[in-house]
Design goal:
The structure holds 2 protein chains of 2 kinds. By secondary structure, chain A is mostly helical. Helix content of chain A is 78%, strand content 0%. Chain B is mainly α. Chain B has one domain. Chain B is elongated. Classes of the chains: A mainly alpha, B mainly alpha. The interface between A and B is medium-sized, with 35 and 28 residues.
């Protein structure tokens, strides 16, 4: 770490004593460093921003543990790495759930349109679809079975495009659960 | 919320945050409190009549010393692990695990070299003595204390921290159990004094992940 950051331990000690001006200077100066550290591992700028804020909050919660006898950068990057790994774990889990849903969506479309899978799948799909609220049924039938676009479905049902996307997502999730029970 | 707004929120109402004492100092404080509590509470229950005579026998003394060492090193490691630091700390975990493994090994050797070791005896031990509850009862208050102390810090490995914290608590509790329990059979000591420390350590991983995330 460059000499221009040599005053960070002093700023941290002042922050521990309640000096909010020193604390603001410290947080403002370390933010670009944290962003660069996170940015090397994440591509999505929104996620970089989110994790940077998580690191700042983590640093705030852990500020009593900093001791001036220990290297500030080792302390800071340990927190940054912890928050990054935590984020990646959570994100991996939600990505896996999304992947499951996409897989189910493909299965649903294939099942509805494949002549080989035909009768059994169509019968089961029809049963599961009938369990959904009317609006969700219409959206799914138009988009996934008849193959209309979001815009076409929105115009046909008099809904906004974003409402159609949300309804389709909810319907797919419900259907995925329902279909799992069959 | 943008990063700038986060900084504004964090700095606007900043209160002084007194530095935590060093890990060795906090570990020493916890060990002192835990040992005092365990000595007093086990004395209330009543130490075995022959404890002084047993203390001068090598196997008993070795067992007590390694149990104490396992508890103390686990406590030391856990307080070091509760401070963020990116330098490697593998030696800490090794330091905490080694005495415990020696203790476990000693008890296993003593047990399995018994001349009358039979499967029926092992079964009898499991079905006729249930003493793990004592270990948990002794460890409850020191356990709450160590978790509160760790929660005030910032453990970056909550699972490992939870495991070592529970090993520290139950190892020290195991000494209190040993001084109050009149049974010296190594199989009994292995099954009801040593193995519960190991098994509750696994529960510690879960507790750490639930309560020590920051």
């Amino acid at each position: 770490m460059s000499d221009k950051y040599a005053h960070w331990p002093e700023l941290m000690v002042a922050a521990q004593a309640g000096d909010n001006k020193a604390y603001r200077t410290l947080l403002t100066e370390i933010t670009p460093i944290i962003k660069a550290f996170i940015g090397r591992r994440l591509y999505d700028q929104n996620q970089v921003e989110d994790v940077t804020q998580e690191v700042l909050i983590g640093l705030h919660n852990a500020r009593a543990t900093y001791r001036s006898s220990q290297p500030f950068s080792a302390w800071l990057f340990a927190i940054a790495r912890y928050k990054l790994i935590d984020h990646l774990r959570k994100h991996q889990r939600s990505t896996a759930k999304e992947a499951d849903l996409t897989e189910f969506e493909t299965f649903l479309t294939d099942g509805a349109n494949s002549p080989e899978w035909g009768a059994t799948i169509k019968h089961d799909l029809a049963y599961a679809l009938n369990q959904l609220p009317d609006k969700q049924q219409h959206v799914l039938k138009l988009m996934k079975i008849e193959g209309h676009s979001v815009q076409e479905t929105a115009e046909s049902l008099g809904m906004s495009a974003s409402a159609v996307k949300v309804t389709a997502h909810r319907a797919l999730k419900t259907l995925q659960k329902q279909f799992g029970k069959l | 919320m943008t990063t700038k707004k986060t900084i504004d929120a964090l700095t606007s109402d900043l209160q002084p945050s007194p530095k935590l004492a060093g890990p060795a100092c906090r570990a020493a404080r916890w060990i002192a409190i835990a040992v005092t509590f365990l000595v007093v509470s086990s004395l209330v229950e009543g130490w075995r009549g022959d404890w002084m005579a047993r203390m001068v026998t090598i196997p008993f003394l070795a067992e007590i010393l390694f149990t104490l060492l396992a508890g103390a090193t686990a406590a030391l490691a856990v307080f070091y692990l509760s401070v963020p630091d990116s330098r490697p700390r593998r030696w800490l975990v090794a330091l905490a695990v080694a005495p415990f493994l020696i203790w476990l090994g000693l008890m296993a050797i003593f047990s399995f070299y018994l001349p009358d070791m039979l499967p029926t005896k092992i079964l009898h031990e499991f079905t006729h003595h249930f003493e793990a509850w004592k270990l948990l009862a002794y460890g409850l208050l020191p356990g709450l204390l160590i978790f509160v102390m760790l929660k005030r810090a910032a453990p970056l490995h909550p699972g490992l921290t939870g495991l070592l914290a529970v090993v520290a608590i139950t190892s020290l509790s195991a000494i209190a159990c040993r001084l109050t329990c009149p049974v010296d059979d190594p199989l009994h000591v292995l099954v009801w004094h040593t193995l519960p420390v190991f098994l509750s350590g696994l529960l510690g991983v879960l507790l750490g992940k639930l309560f020590l995330k920051f």
